[in-house]
UniProtKB/TrEMBL annotation:
Spans traversing the lipid bilayer: none
Family listed: Belongs to the mTERF family.
Coiled-coil annotated residue ranges, if any: none
A Pfam family reported for this protein in Swiss-Prot or TrEMBL: mTERF
Keyword Transit peptide assigned: yes
Annotated keywords: Transit peptide
GO molecular function (one): nucleic acid binding
Name of the protein in its database record: mTERF domain-containing protein 2
Amino acid sequence: MIASKNMSVAVDGSNVVPEHLSNLAKQLNVKSPVLSKVINSHQEKLKFYPESRWLVLFEYLTQYDFKPSELLEMIDSNPDILGINRKDLQKCMIAWTNFRFDDKKLRQLIVSQPSCLLLDDKEILSRIPKLLSYVGNKQNRLLELISYSPNILFDNWKYIESKFDYILLNMELGPTQFVTTSVMSSTLFDLKCRHTFLIKLGMYKPRDPKANPNQITGNPSLKKIIETSDKQFAVKVAGVTAEEFFVFKKIFKKQLDEENEEDSDEPDYYSDDN
């Protein structure tokens, strides 16, 4: 095991890397001190994975041109990927490559978001086409969107669909205006609340129906609307006091709660708990 009995700590008090870890580092083609640091940072999780799991992960993914240093970075970011057996890892990668993404960009995504490897191959084959339809069937756009909001691979599809529809239909924004934002990681409630607040202030106006959906408007950018704290949004984007927005947000939530009660059969996609 990587961490059990005398292996629970990768570096002792004298900062000497144990021999078994030095040997593993050589097999993985990574630096011993870096491997030791990763193991020390995640002892509770990594102690359950035998060396064979490390070797399988490195051996298989290096076939897809992942660098050993990148694989170690991925484990440091998400140790759970060591729990994937070779068969599931193989099916997962085959599913991802099935969509003919740019190899380099796909690797970059997986390195930055290792949770992509935790998906079942059937989930990938089912969800990716749906997501592509919302970004104009552009592979690179989708990879960008996932890098900002990996939750779109795992969240309830109806909830994800509701956010897409609101951005495209209510806010009248095109894919190029949202794929490089974390809007899909925000709640639908926050998105709708801030958008509605700006409309009431006259600061967010409908788009000319004849205009290109990707054309920049005079409305505040999606980044400014959603990638700010409540206080920053109120003062710097809406130009009001934080207290004014807090009062509106409270009233707006009450209104939505009442609407949801009237239509209790529908899931509460506006809730902060989604």
